[in-house]
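Researcher: Next entry in the queue.
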Amino acid sequence: MNVVSHMGKKFVKRVPRAVREPEPGFDNDPGARKQKAYQKASRQAEQEFDGEMDNVDQEQPERESHWIDFAAKEQKDIVHEELNQFGNGDEPWQVLVVKGDNNIFLYSKGSNTSIYLMPREAKDRFKPLMGNPGLRYFGLYLGNFKGDQFNLSLEGATELAKSGAARKNWVKLNDEGEKSFLYGQDIKKADLHSVCERGITHNRGICLVLNALGECIGIGKLEARDPTFKKVSDEEILVKNVVDRGVYLRNQNRL
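Model: Structure for this entry, 255 residues:
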């Protein structure tokens, strides 16, 4: 709106909405738009891996983010049980959630729900952002639900290994095995350094894959008939590669 003067009289000149100059901001910055496009492509590559993009070309429902303990007790029990399959008693859940003083943050897209861990102290600070469809990443990505099944993420597995609470359902690789696994290969007998005491006992065969230093480099799934790997052949695939840290570099090459 501009004020103009004509023969001593002042008039208000309204600029039509269609020709008003755009206000400075994110959408008017070419560099910001490129960055936004890159982030979208990176997220799509990640989603293709973790199963959130079953119908990439179809219109997806708007995402909704919110703070909540869990939508239902059954949902909490599933996550609780999944984490504890990798440790003794309730130790993994206690270390990551209770003693870690973390709050659960849910990010939903259709039937898929991603679970994040965020320090409780951050809840009030970021509460005004809840419900914003643009809020996509918040804290540590623990895993996601597909239906009523919870899948631990690579980030969640890494945090679990770092905490020292991962005492079950892991395999450790030697140096050559680590290199092979990071190139997306499955695990064979020659790649093994060691396996947890009772072998792989996870109800879906899921296991953490560690290098010789005990660092988590991926997630695998039991393929061998013998979960202790004591009676296996040299050529038999023992653990199938579900995801490994090399996937990030491979996805970057596709952008």
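Model: Residues 170 and 196 are 6 Å apart (CA to CA).
Researcher: Noted, moving on.
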